[in-house]
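The records we work with from here on pair a chain with its fold. The integers have meaning only within a learned vocabulary of local backbone shapes. A complete example follows; check for yourself that the lines match position by position.

:::
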Amino acid sequence: MSQVVETGGLTLEKRLRMYQARDAIIDRLNPEAGQLIDLDKFLKAATDELGKLMEVDRCHLVARSQAGELRIEYEYRADPDIPSMLGMKIPVELSALEGRVDLTRPIAIDDTASLRLDPVLARIVELTQTRSLLIVPVVRKSEVLGLIGLHHCRRPHRWLPEEIGFIESIARQVAIGYEYTRLYMEKEKEATITRALLEIANEINRSGDLLEVTALVIDRALELVGADVGCLAVLDAAGVRLGLDTVRGRAAHALSVTEVALEQYPILQRAFAEKRACRVEVTEGAAAHAFLHEVLGGAQLALLVPILIKDRAFGALLLAWQRPTARVTVHEIGLVEGIANQIALALEKDQLSAEVVRLRQELRGTQAALPIIGVSDKIKRCIEMALHVADSSTTVLLQGESGVGKELIA
């Protein structure tokens, strides 16, 4: 694949500038080793310096997402007239690229017009309008984190071994920057999760009334993961219907339903059957699209974490994001699972609160009128008052003539 020719070489001046640029990149990295690196600033500066030094038309740093997608995150352009590709998703999954091309080694193509390229590379060349291409992987512990791409768009270029070796050395420094940041962020996220769970546990214990603190817990969860709407979803006693209780967040108005049947949405059935967190994205298919739009008011992403009491599903903590660019990380899923566990522990300790939450939802659901014969304003006020005092130690006297529903309210 490589079209590199060993004859010729770089001028002494160019070689000196390359070493100076590498030292500058290393110096920018090393003083930050003991603290959080501004990775965005570091990578942007590295991309600009490489592009100028190598005198290319374009220099790209392509990042790999957790899902294996390739996206151009940083870009240098020698001429503003060259169309920008910043933010563009490369329509090739990394796994597909690795299956056809050895990405552990650099790929140098002197003249794309003179070769019959692999279809995957041909597609990249077409998208980037490249005449001469050098791709160098950013690798850390055998994992491809991203790619550095150098492009000559107007003329062929003979890639020299010294140039390739230099870009490889820069790629190693970029990988170190990624690793420093990853380790630091993991520790920070672990500490954040621990602090958040302790705060929520303290809030629940201090209140002593889960019904009052539920809204605060959901608000805290929304704040921590950046979701737009959240609620406590409560299963009915038969386990066939799910009621949405304590809806919170800036997009709370988008939820128009208060109760759904599990049989309508296989996603809900799967989450409760597997008893583990379920992430739902709008791109997953018709079933996911229907759930997100019909139940969650057009959300793009949702996270449903079952709340288990003695291994039985009581309901779920349900969070949703309205933004098309929304993502949820493994750390954030772990955080929401921890919050759901805190709610479950509180409900298990106070079984009466759990029963009142379920009763409140059933009385507000679509079948609320079935067990109650009277639906007058007085009956409704009586029910609301009963729910208000149901989980307290207050003694309540129910008065009324025979047959008006005292036993039912009790």
